[in-house]
Design brief:
Strand order of the largest sheet: 1-2-3-4-7-8-9-10
CATH superfamily: Metal-dependent hydrolases
CATH class: Alpha Beta
Number of helices: 13
Number of domains: 1
Largest sheet: 8 strands, parallel
Number of strands: 10
Order of helices and strands: HEHHEHEHEEEHEHHEHHEHEHH
Helix content: 40-55%
Low-confidence stretches: 1-52
Distance between the termini: 5 Å
Oligomer: single chain
CATH topology: TIM Barrel
Length: 359
């Protein structure tokens, strides 16, 4: 991701701190941003994954923008303990060169369109500032205000064309809608047109918030919600997996329960005799990407590696909910070859997101 001009909540060259407004003239911003970033532009962001001691690229690493922290406090109470410095410290301990950051779940949508649009912009601007302020250490999966298609399309444009984000961060479900829902077709169509990298994190589904007393939804439902939303793309009425084949999906937690349930998906496709899947759903599942945060025990990795080749596996940590070293040790325990370990640690991410190479 090359160093780029960004419209942020604080202006670099004139030291303004008031929030950027949606109507600010872009040419004025570009001139200001270029002046403020001129010294860094010549050197560009250093290549990630050069130093052997710090070579990993973490594609599952959360951040908590001040505006999101405030929104969470008003909406639901507790927030994770996080700061930029804590992220960097954990990255260094785990040998992580770069973390591609995504917003803490459940993101920026709390039921109202305009507040969600405003929050998405503030969260993305803060993330872009992290990228600019810590050269080579962060990439960005930008937030969008789904389930608001119009606002999401505007934020996709801003994220890619102004902030030069590495991809878009989505969630598995939005109340009763999964990503294969027809309501999301305009957004997926644009992401497909851009051949976007889309990272997806699970949330507590509307159906199943407290089924087992004493077991938080994140223990069971997060992993299962990933399977639900993948299934909605393949089997849903919109046929999004077939209509939008150029979206490059990354699924969290080694696919959650997906590797275990592929047999049932194969049976469903066979029963429906869907001509779009002459070989069943496996070819579709095998072209997706899967990161290993909280999915790095021997059994989880064994199931995932029976589903996909190593080229589809990415390193992830789920910081600040898990320490980075957990993923490092899990992968080490599986005894990947040196070449496969390097592929998971950084090569696959750099292939998927070439902008990381030149950043």
């Amino acid at each position: 991701m090359a160093l780029s001009t960004r419209r942020l909540s604080g202006c670099f060259c004139c030291n303004r701190t008031e929030p950027a407004e949606a109507g600010v003239d872009r040419r004025q911003f570009v001139a200001c941003g270029l002046a403020g970033l001129a010294l860094g532009a010549a050197a560009a962001r250093p290549a990630r994954a050069q130093a052997p001691a710090r070579s990993r690229i973490d594609v599952h690493h959360h951040y908590l923008a001040p505006a999101q922290r405030e929104a969470f406090t008003h909406q639901r109470g507790g927030v994770p303990e996080w700061s930029v410095q804590k992220s960097l410290e954990d990255m260094d301990k785990a040998g992580i060169a770069t973390a591609v950051i995504s917003s803490v779940q459940p993101g920026v949508w709390f039921g109202e369109i305009e507040p969600a649009r405003k929050l998405a912009r503030e969260v993305n601007d803060y993330g872009a500032r992290m990228v600019a302020d810590h050269k080579g250490r962060f990439g960005l999966f930008a937030a969008i205000p789904l389930p608001d298609p119009e606002g999401s399309l505007k934020e996709i444009e801003y994220a890619f064309d102004t902030l030069h984000a590495d991809g878009i961060g989505l969630f598995t479900s939005y109340k009763d809608k999964y990503l294969g829902d027809p309501a999301f077709v305009p957004v997926l169509e644009e992401l497909n047109r851009r051949k976007a990298v889309v990272y997806v994190h699970p949330v507590t589904p509307a159906c199943c918030g407290g089924l087992v007393k004493g077991v938080p939804p994140s223990v069971i439902e997060y992993a299962t919600d990933t399977t639900r939303t993948v299934s909605s793309l393949i089997f849903g009425e919109a046929g999004s997996a077939f209509r939008f084949p150029d979206i490059r999906w990354i699924w969290s937690h080694s696919g959650g329960t997906l590797p275990f349930l592929t047999g049932r998906l194969i049976r469903l496709a066979s029963e429906r005799k869907d001509k779009r899947m002459p070989d069943g759903p496996l070819p579709i599942l095998r072209k997706y990407y899967y990161e290993v945060a909280q999915g790095n025990t021997p059994g989880q990795l064994a199931a995932l590696m029976k589903l996909v080749t190593v080229s589809q596996v990415l390193f992830g940590t789920d910081y600040p909910y898990r320490e980075g070293i957990e993923a490092v040790e899990g992968l080490a325990d599986y005894k990947f070859s040196q070449a496969d370990a390097a592929a998971i640690d950084h090569v696959n991410a750099m292939t998927l997101m070439p902008g990381l190479k030149a950043s």
